[in-house]
Predict the structure.
Amino acid sequence: MTQNIRIGVIGGSGVYDLPGLQSVEEINIQTPFGEPSAKYTVGTIHGQRVAFLARHGHGHRINPSNVNYKANIWGFKSLGVEYLISMNACGSLKEEIAPGHIVIPNQIFDRTRRSSSFFDETGLVVHTSVADPICPQLADILHQSVASTGKTVHKGGEFIIIEGPRFSTKAESRTFRKLGFSIIGMTAAPEAFLAREAGMSYAIIAHVTDYDVWHESKEPVTVDMVIQTMQGNAVAAQQATLNAIDILAGAPPSPWKDTLKDAVITNRAHIPQALKEKYHLLIGAYL
């Protein structure tokens, strides 16, 4: 399998490829959790080997609730990825964050009903710290990378993740706004939590497509509205990602690489051999 792929990129709505990749190959990865959203596109850019995955599949076939997040992250881990850049479309919950802007959030609030851990079966208990689910070092790099494109970018902010695929009601949107959230989306959870369990640095380029439905002076969010704004944002998000890849050249190992070292609470003698084998990629070094 291809080696030395330290940087991964997940393309969200409107971003289905990464321009500029050379020596491209497509890799199909089987995981204990089923198939990822698509084949991983692996190529070289700025001297770095990079793995790209379209979160919703080619042609945007998979809705947010049906994305196989565990398989997607497992696939990146098996390729050796340490730094994972996520591109997400989102709605704004603040007046000053306008459609067309980009946000580099620093917090996530999970309001989905999805499993948020690889370790959700009896026989192996793992407690992972996700107080700060976004890697601050990678977030700083992404902020710098977006700013260099000339796009308006907001550093920090709390990102609430809803189940989808429907958009919010006005009552929901107004409540999220009163609670102080900055942006709203559907896919960063459980993605960020799984990336942490996989020992990766994870951060988000969130491109704002609309004002959700709280904004009385604007039309309620529609797919047409999202697509129109998304097309302009996607180009900036792709360029920012290329800038970040350049900065990450020669980066040290992910600061989260040993997240699970002291996270396994189950007595080693009581962990079934089948589970040790299943999760060897994540915890083999600590057993």
Notes: The chain has one domain: 7-286. The chain has seven helices and eleven strands.
